[in-house]
Amino acid sequence: MTDLDSDPGRSFDADVFSRMCASRGVLQHVTGRWSALIVVALLENNAPMRFAAIRRRVDGISDRMLSQTLGQIEREGIVVRTVHSTIPPHVEYGLTALGQKIAEPLTALIGIIESELPHVLAAQKAFDDADERRS
Amino acid sequence: MTDLDSDPGRSFDADVFSRMCASRGVLQHVTGRWSALIVVALLENNAPMRFAAIRRRVDGISDRMLSQTLGQIEREGIVVRTVHSTIPPHVEYGLTALGQKIAEPLTALIGIIESELPHVLAAQKAFDDADERRS
């Protein structure tokens, strides 16, 4: 704390493994039920998207959850909401520079999960079969 | 489905954006409240860990949540539980090859969140201040 107090420009050491560190909450928001999908959809689209376009891409999300999740990641500086003053107004959501940085490992993670899914399903089956034999 | 039926060895196309695809559930488990931290702790440790060592590293996790989360990611083939037949038996949890693949982008994500935390906190403050001015 002394370093931080004496030099406010110095970055402090965030530690997601500490329950008191705010970074843990950010990790939870970013990897939440819907935010990872929204952020990766925006990265893949490579351009801002309208609400309805995100909703179509993220199959199964409700208007309420999409609006709530967008609000949360906008607050964290991950997406930016732009209102174009057309009639009717045209609203778009895009990734910030921070949002792009965060979207990259999430996109990699999703790619791995998709390509490894057959192995995961086989592991689940083997585990459940072994479990059945034990009981 | 025709391709899949005619050639069972062929991998199918998983799509996390489809609500029906099992990959979405795997993404949710892997990025769940505790699993990301456990998987990254195991990767950083670079060797299997005992239950108590994981619990110490993942500050704030209860025995019950750790045991439940380890069971879930063991079922998905991400960690492997090894019982060494010493007296008393010595149990360790380590990443599988799949677990290592998954842990890498999660480690990158956590690194970004930790190093960008000051920007996230500044964005939250700016958002809340603007919100207050509007109300």
UniProtKB/TrEMBL annotation, chains A, B:
Domain of life: Bacteria
Key word Nucleotidyltransferase present: no
Gene3D superfamilies, A to Z: Winged helix-like DNA-binding domain superfamily/Winged helix DNA-binding domain
Protein's UniProt keywords contain Transcription: yes
Record's keyword terms, sorted: DNA-binding, Transcription, Transcription regulation
Domain HTH hxlR-type residues, every copy: 21-121
Name of the protein described by the UniProt record: Helix-turn-helix domain-containing protein
Record organism: Gordonia defluvii
Lineage: Bacteria, Bacillati, Actinomycetota, Actinomycetes, Mycobacteriales
